Amino acid sequence: MTFISTSAPGKCILFGEHAVVYGHPAVAVAIDQRISIKIQPSTSGMWLLDGGTLNMSRNPHIKGLIDKLWPVEDGAPPLSIHIDGNIPRASGLGSSAALSVALAGALRLARGRLVKDSKSNDQDNWAEGYGSSISESDAYGTDNGLFVSNNGEELTLIIGKQAVDADENAILAHSVEAAAQNGRASPMDSSTCSHGGVVVISDQIEADLTHLYRRELTMPDGERFWHIHELDLGKIPEDVYLVIGSTGVNAPTSKQVAKVARMLEQNPARMEEIETIGKIARRGIDALIAGDYEAVGRTMTENQIMLKSIGVSSPELDSLIKAAAPTSLGAKLTGAGGGGCMIALTRNPKSTSDAIELAGGRTLISKLGSPGMKIDSQTEITFWTKS
Ligand code: PMV
Q: 254-260 long-range contacts, Cβ below 8 Å, gap at least 24?
């Protein structure tokens, strides 16, 4: 039977976690580990997930994307969804964003896109869709906010890969992540898992980087916005790897962010440390642009010193970082800290990985800046189209 299959990478943060909450830049990189999605019309007439009944309330990301892109009320048929992949869950490596990006892309492929006048996929030419420059549609509302232009124009359906758009997949993934996390989510995971490569987010437009779009979200404590950029690594040296080491300790991001907020409330002068992380992140960006991986590694280690100083490292993270140090260019925690994962930049991935495992970590090895969402099946089919 025909199916559509897509995949999207996980991510880790190279520089700037926590300081990004206070407006400084953060640098995220897509990793080789991916989530794959396969969809096909369900033969049982019911929504299926990995062969069993799909429980919508237990799978809010999937439900959110179906609500946005697959209007059952308009006759879109139930689907059978399969999820596969090698990104560990709940470890700060973007598994839920990767799932959401891959599914958004698969559903878009499965319905195609109506466009106004040609076969161009520029957002200006869309007759329907979600995107940073589409003011008529609301990716963040609770209902299906998809506009369909019906000014009496003749519309064309485009199918296959030209119907798919990285900004649309990222905005939809951001919206369902926010909905699943009490209205709070930075677009770092969704944008990195969708675009791949290296993504920089900041409260300002950063010079020397390609600006992709501005993202806004009304969070419970007010309006927030981010500028999303792409950083072109150019030719990545063959022998530079990231080794990701998981402590196995579960530490929710919200708790770690609250801990830093409390520290700053009690002692506002410590904002200086956050500012230092911002400066380090900017130096990291320069080193990445210059392709100077020795400097990238050193800057990661400096970033770690500051993360430890603001209290978000942990004995387990410190021990894995210490184990990685002798064989790597630099190492730090990645993400919220308190547990979760660390990363080491290394030219000796096997030795670094062995050292981390000996110190009690579970490792993954990745190149720097994997490709974003990919279509892994034949593309020229749809399962339902909006008429
Ligand atoms: O643990 P992660 O990968 O979700 O990263 C959290 C990054 C923080 O800067 C700590 C929080 C945030 O919202 O940016």
A: 254/184, 255/336, 255/338, 256/18, 256/312, 256/336, 256/337, 256/338, 257/18, 257/21, 257/336, 259/311, 259/312, 259/338, 260/18, 260/21, 260/310, 260/311, 260/312
Domain 4-232 architecture:
2-Layer Sandwich (3.30)
How far is the centre of ligand 1, averaged over its atoms, from the C-alpha of 153 (Å)?
A: 44
Q: What is the CATH number of domain 241-366?
A: 3.30.70.890
Q: Cα of 103 to ligand 1 centre, how many Å?
A: 22
In short, whether 219's Cβ falls inside 6 Å of ligand 1 is no
- φ/ψ bin of 313: left (φ > 0), alpha (ψ from -120 to 50), beta (otherwise): beta
Could you read off the pLDDT tens digit of each residue along the chain, which spans 387 residues?
A: 689 999 999 999 999 999 999 989 999 999 999 999 999 999 999 999 999 999 999 999 999 999 999 998 889 999 999 999 999 988 889 999 999 999 999 999 999 999 987 667 789 889 899 999 888 788 988 766 666 666 777 889 999 999 999 999 999 999 999 998 888 888 999 999 999 999 999 999 999 899 999 999 988 878 999 999 999 998 878 899 999 999 999 988 889 999 999 999 999 999 999 999 999 999 999 999 999 999 999 999 999 999 999 999 999 999 999 999 999 999 999 999 999 999 999 999 999 999 999 999 999 999 999 999 999 997 688 999 877
Domain boundaries of the chain, sorted by first residue: 4-232, 241-366
In angstroms, what is the span from residue 18 Cα to ligand 1's centroid?
6
CB of 17 shorter than 6 A to ligand 1: yes
- pTM for this prediction: 0.95
With contact defined as beta carbons under 8 Å apart, do 339 and 251 qualify?
yes
Q: Quick one: which atom of ligand 1 is closest to the CA of 185? A: 13
Q: Which residue's CA is the closest to the ligand 1 atom numbered 1?
A: 335
